[in-house]
């Protein structure tokens, strides 16, 4: 029994090390480029949401300055100019009104570019069991997928995946970090 505990303790760091590694996807020729990664800090105007409606969040832009602002209103903009991350309230998967415009902009791009494909990644904060967070991340990605399809995006253009709590962008254990990790990300392939 003691030997089994020793082996388990020695194997744990190796499992954790390899479990946390990820390889970024390389865009295929003729495909839309992958969007920029979201910033790891909340905008100054964003307030963490405690699940009781305490504050509205704003999307973190995929790029800076006027180019990002123009991308939010220009529905035919390239994916790199669009907001690639939307955020959710605690334990929720409904798309908040302030993020609906960003999803609609992606829908407009995808309908005008039928060869473009996107993967919607669902994410959660660290609270809840691993299984629950995988299911919640899936519901978040599916909600975005359904809104895209309602706007005329072809089913074959959209893939979904849930990472649950496994890929946080903020590593803190506070409301601000949790808010940043409750998200769906558009990853063009």
Counting DSSP H or I runs of 4 or more residues, the number of helices is 5
Named CATH topology of the domain at 59-189: 60s Ribosomal Protein L30, Chain: A
Summarize the biggest pleated sheet.
4 strands, mixed
Helix amount: 25-40%
Strand percentage, roughly? 5-15%
Low-confidence segments, ≥5 residues, pLDDT <50?
4-9, 11-75
In total, the number of strands is: 4
Morphology: elongated
The span between the termini is 48 Å
Mean pLDDT value: 72
Could you please describe the fold and organization of this structure?
With 189 residues, the protein is α+β, with helices and mostly antiparallel strands. It has a domain at 59-189: OmpA-like domain (60s Ribosomal Protein L30, Chain: A, 2-Layer Sandwich). Helices cover 38% and strands 12% of the residues. It has helices at 2-19, 65-73, 97-112, 130-150, 175-181, and strands at 85-87, 118-123, 158-164, 183-188. A 4-stranded mixed sheet has the order 1-4-2-3. Helix 4 (130-150) links the parallel strand 2 and strand 3. The radius of gyration is 18 Å and the shape is elongated. The N and C termini lie far apart (48 Å). The relative contact order is 0.18. The model is unreliable at 4-9 and 11-75 (pLDDT under 50).
């Amino acid at each position: 029994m003691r030997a089994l505990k020793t082996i388990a303790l020695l194997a744990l760091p190796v499992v954790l090390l390899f479990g946390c590694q990820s390889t970024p996807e390389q865009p295929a020729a003729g495909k839309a480029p992958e969007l920029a990664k979201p910033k790891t800090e909340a905008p100054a105007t964003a307030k963490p949401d405690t699940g009781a409606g305490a504050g509205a969040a704003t999307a973190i832009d995929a790029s800076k300055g006027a180019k990002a602002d123009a991308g939010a209103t220009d529905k035919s903009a390239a994916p790199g100019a669009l907001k690639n991350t939307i955020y959710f309230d605690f334990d929720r998967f409904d798309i908040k009104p302030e993020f609906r415009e960003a999803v609609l902009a992606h829908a407009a791009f995808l309908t005008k570019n039928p060869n473009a494909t996107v993967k919607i990644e669902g994410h959660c904060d660290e609270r809840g069991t691993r299984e629950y967070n995988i299911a919640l991340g899936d519901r978040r990605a599916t909600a975005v997928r359904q809104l895209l399809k309602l706007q005329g995006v072809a089913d074959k253009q959209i893939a979904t995946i849930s990472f649950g709590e496994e890929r946080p962008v903020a590593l803190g254990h506070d409301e601000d970090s949790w808010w940043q990790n409750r998200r769906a990300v558009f990853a063009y392939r």
